[in-house]
Amino acid sequence: MTRMKHLPLALAAILFAGGAHAATAEEAAQLGKSLTPLGAEKAGNKDGTIPAWDGGLVKAAAGFANGGRRDQDPFAGEKPLVSITAKNMEQHADKLSDGSKAMLKKYPSYRIDVYPTHRTAAAPDWVYANTAKNATRAKLNDKLVPEGAYAGIPFPVPKTGAEVMWNHLLRWRGTDWQKPFRSYLTTAAGKPVMTVDGTADGSMPYYYKDTAPEKFNGTYWTIRLVNSGPPIRAGEAINGKLNLDPEKDSSYVYLPGQRRTRKLPNACCDTPTPATAGVMSFDEVDIFGGRLDRFDWKILGKKEMYIPYNSNRSLKGKDADLLAANHLNPDSVRWELHRVWVVEAKLKAGQRHLAPRSVYYIDEDSWTGALADRWDANGQLWKTLWSLPVTMPDLPATTSITFGFYDLVSGTWFVSDLVTEKAAQYKQMPRWPEATWSQEALSGAGLR
């Protein structure tokens, strides 16, 4: 891993400022100047392959209406600059993750088509304003729980790996939404099996701008998923609330065969989540969705990497168009060169986890996790996780809808939150009533 050579000296110095938390006033003052309002380097790279950020994409495509499809590709006319295969991957190895290189070696059909880079990430002005406030007031306590952050990126000038990961967890992606979707597990023999056909109602109370920061109770993410299929799972439902303090997290599941709602006893970490039929663990959802306190987190550097980006084309057509035998259809995935924060997680002494080491690649512009690699207890590269960030200029935001993993050991792979055949793709909703997340609402929604 190339460490700090892609960082300006000022940012490199910040990373090694031992023990500091909140940014200084001088560092925070660079937001909107040398840094974007969310904390990325505003300038492009030296050779021009990464352009300067110019405000992002904030104008929706003609004809787009909330509640409709988001498959309008703003760069549909572009052709790949390069197509990377196993034959030429060594020429691009310094810009590929370990998981990407492993997939290229394992499957001759796997290909990475790299397109021109577009820095589309954006957010509302009030998110920018709160991010500037968070820069000097937010900090992590000794439990790796953020304090003093609200309604913006908590650590736009990050100094620790844990701060980068909280930026991913608390990134801007709207406030309230609804997402019908499907998920598929594809066997090593290349047969896709649908595991979920349901609707997710989601909310980020962290971004309720009409709530005073001092009244925020720490619940930053709420979700309710109701399954309509496959038939064996029709009527199942799950809800969850994630809190900045993970001891206050709660999740419940409704099983129609039992006609009861039960609290999930260990809804975290490497426990399989019912939301994916147990295929993914809780902390693999959307690249990373778990608690941080089982790991030591370290920034390995900032690096220019090929990552999936602006991949609205993945929302087009039929599910089968995206599902190749051993991986996503390369024709449906757009890759671009972007600067990412590279963060390593190593299991703390005395803790247990199926993946004792992971490396995460977090986009500097949107703070969306784009790729991640996980190693098993034998030190073998086990899984490579991915998401497909798409642009949503009506929010505005660039963030992921669809995500999944490739199991490099078993040969199976999984795609979650596939909205390709859905009429509504990430519909923005009015504020969900608090009763939406109650146990009673869960059992009522899941009855069949």
From TrEMBL:
<dbReference type="InterPro" id="IPR010752">
    <property type="entry name" value="DUF1329"/>
</dbReference>
<feature type="signal peptide">
    <location>
        <begin position="1"/>
        <end position="22"/>
    </location>
</feature>
<protein>
    <submittedName>
        <fullName>DUF1329 domain-containing protein</fullName>
    </submittedName>
</protein>
<keyword id="KW-0732">Signal</keyword>
<dbReference type="Pfam" id="PF07044">
    <property type="entry name" value="DUF1329"/>
</dbReference>
